[in-house]
């Protein structure tokens, strides 16, 4: 049985301001987000404060990622060599379509019509679940939050906690309404206590774990010098997917590679503290190829590009590929806390999504044009980022690109051309100044409410009133320059 979902595609999403306006009207979601992000921020602050040299650890993490990115072809080839030597099969995918085709063909080759999935943002990015469903293959999400999103015919709204916009009462209703349609039903006396909700999910998923022959995962890290893939999670569902099925297919973004196993030690200090506010990750699973008689015997790794090479070419923008998907930037962002993740039109929401999505997808769509402006540039995201991604600088750079790509058609470009023309000749400047004083006299001290082409900008700002006279006119009037005074 296939779980029928609403379309998870983000194609056709409106610009961020429009989507955010609708989200701001959802008061329940705003309460849920405010409570959840404040709780995570508090936990993170405590465990980060315990590390005396936290800043040095951030620098080490950034350096390890930069080393991999600056020599990415070398480390990817080394990763492939070590994976292959240990019995895994490596596939290369240029884009989402190619990656989906590879995974669908691999699942079909096993004769299975279902897969269990470890939480994976890469597979959400390429919309693998939809591709599998189109091929008649059911994909069961086993992460608790992802299960809530899937059963609720919803979209993820957070990198770490995809169902952060739902509260316990809403989750209970989803479980009671949906679980029985795709497997073991939730108990009729289900309450909204976390332990009871987790138990219902565990019982529902257990039958899927025990019968599944194929699992699909992502990877938090891929170690080049050993061929080891690493998945970190907090519930144990990942361990079930990575050990019970006969076939394991991992879809891994090429930027997830780390040069050495020693680099993993740095990341395992940074990631848990930054994401869940824990000193140590509850479940860390590592596998290196195939081990006879232990775990999956048919292991495949799909190395995914899907726009990452283009990001890598941008000297400033490539630092976004350092991201280790901890969600620390989301939890401190005042914009995300009020709008939630859906307004960003991607599986990657928040500040990192505002820079990563336009780089991966380009800025041709309304949503991707607007994302670089989905920030107050307060800088909290940079301070929280465990690998020191300068998100504010990337946002400013992307705003410049959006304006440049408009080829002079944007209001900003038109206003800059007009200003250049005016300042190009002192006579034009003086004429413009005299015109502004005329406007000031006509307004009679009243404030401007809007400026053509800048209405949205001026709605939230006080526009200075035009002066009744320019400095030149004041000088002429007070110093006796009759010609200028009379003009």
UniProtKB/TrEMBL annotation:
Q: Which InterPro entries match?
A: 4Fe4S_Fe-S-bd (IPR017896), 4Fe4S_Fe_S_CS (IPR017900), FTHF_cligase-like_sf (IPR024185), Helical_ferredxn (IPR009051), LUD_dom (IPR003741), LutB/LldF (IPR004452), LutB_C (IPR024569), NagB/RpiA_transferase-like (IPR037171)
Q: Report domain LUD positions.
A: 76-304
Q: Which UniProt keywords apply?
A: 4Fe-4S, Electron transport, Iron, Iron-sulfur, Metal-binding, Repeat, Transport
**Record PROSITE patterns:** 4FE4S_FER_1
Record SUPFAM superfamilies: 4Fe-4S ferredoxins, NagB/RpiA/CoA transferase-like
Q: Which Pfam families match?
A: Fer4_8, LUD_dom, LutB_C
Q: Name one GO molecular function term.
A: metal ion binding
Q: Which GO terms describe its biological process?
A: lactate metabolic process
Q: Does the keyword 4Fe-4S apply?
A: yes
Domain spans labelled Lactate utilization protein B C-terminal: 406-477
Name all 4Fe-4S ferredoxin-type domain ranges: 320-389
Q: Does the keyword Lyase apply?
A: no
Q: Which PANTHER family match?
A: LACTATE UTILIZATION PROTEIN B (PTHR47153:SF2)
NCBIfam families listed in its UniProt record: LutB/LldF family L-lactate oxidation iron-sulfur protein (TIGR00273)
- Please identify the protein, giving its name as recorded: L-lactate dehydrogenase complex protein LldF
Species whose genome carries this gene: Ornithinimicrobium cerasi
């Amino acid at each position: 049985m296939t779980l029928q979902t609403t379309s998870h595609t983000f194609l056709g999403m409106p610009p961020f301001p429009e989507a955010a306006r609708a989200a701001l009207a959802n008061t329940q979601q705003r309460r849920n987000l405010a409570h959840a992000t404040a709780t995570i921020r508090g936990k993170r602050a405590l465990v980060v404060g315990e590390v005396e040299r936290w800043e040095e650890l951030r620098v080490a993490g950034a350096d390890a990622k930069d080393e991999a990115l600056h020599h990415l072809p070398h480390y990817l080839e080394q990763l492939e060599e070590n994976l292959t030597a240990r019995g895994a099969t490596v596939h290369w995918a240029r884009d989402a379509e190619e990656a989906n085709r590879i995974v669908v063909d691999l699942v079909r080759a096993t004769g299975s019509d279902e897969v269990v999935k470890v939480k994976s943002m890469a597979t959400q990015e390429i919309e693998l679940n939809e591709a599998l469903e189109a091929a008649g293959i059911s994909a069961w999400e086993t992460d608790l939050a992802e299960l809530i999103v899937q059963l609720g015919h919803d979209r993820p709204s957070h990198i770490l906690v995809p169902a952060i916009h739902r509260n316990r009462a809403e989750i209970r209703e989803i479980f009671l309404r949906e679980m029985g349609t795709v497997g073991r039903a939730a108990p009729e006396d289900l309450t909204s206590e976390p332990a009871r909700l987790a138990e219902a999910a565990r019982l529902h998923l257990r039958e899927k774990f025990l019968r599944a022959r194929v699992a699909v995962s992502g990877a938090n890290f891929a170690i080049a010098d050993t061929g080891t893939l690493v998945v970190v999670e907090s519930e144990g569902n990942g361990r079930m997917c990575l050990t019970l099925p006969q076939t394991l297919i991992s879809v891994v973004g090429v930027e997830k590679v780390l040069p050495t196993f020693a680099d993993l030690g740095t990341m395992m200090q940074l990631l848990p503290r930054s994401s869940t506010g824990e000193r140590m990750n509850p479940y860390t699973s590592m596998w290196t190829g195939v081990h006879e008689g232990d775990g999956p015997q048919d292991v495949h790794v799909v190395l995914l590009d899907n726009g990452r090479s283009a990001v890598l070419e941008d000297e400033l923008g490539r630092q976004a590929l350092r991201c280790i998907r901890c969600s620390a930037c989301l939890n401190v962002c005042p914009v995300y806390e009020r709008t939630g993740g859906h307004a960003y039109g991607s599986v990657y929401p928040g500040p990192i999504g505002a820079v990563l999505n336009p780089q991966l997808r380009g800025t041709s769509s309304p949503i991707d044009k607007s994302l670089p402006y989905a920030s107050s540039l307060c800088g909290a995201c940079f301070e929280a980022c465990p690998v020191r991604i300068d998100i504010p600088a990337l946002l400013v750079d992307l705003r410049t690109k959006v304006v440049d790509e408009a080829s002079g058609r944007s209001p900003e470009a038109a206003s800059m051309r007009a200003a250049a023309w005016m300042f190009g000749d002192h006579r034009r400047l003086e004429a413009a100044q005299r015109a502004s004083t005329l406007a000031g006299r006509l307004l009679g001290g009243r404030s401007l409410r809007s400026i053509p082409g800048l209405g949205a900008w001026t709605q939230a700002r006080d526009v200075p009133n035009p002066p009744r006279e320019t400095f030149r006119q004041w000088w002429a009037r007070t110093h006796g320059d009759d010609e200028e005074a009379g003009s």
